Amino acid sequence: MILSMPTSYSQMGYKLGVFFHLFYVSIGMYTCYLLARLYVEYRTRKEREGVDFSTHVIQVGSSDSCLSFNMLAAFANFCNQFLQVL
To answer: What is the percentage of the chain residues whose pLDDT exceeds 90?
Structure first.
């Protein structure tokens, strides 16, 4: 969807494009609000049951395992080798 946005905006026109862009942003913000509210409700229910959240981790991620980081590192390595040839 993101890659097709400039084409669809050029076909829609400026005013309609801005309107739909704001519409997409508002839908995204509302979705984030619902997810946050759902998590707060889950946490309050679990705390009432006596679950300890002191060691609770929502997400664990390592930048080494991230595909985009690995691609960026490979591209930087390629650029360094290319510059050494010159």
So the answer is: 19
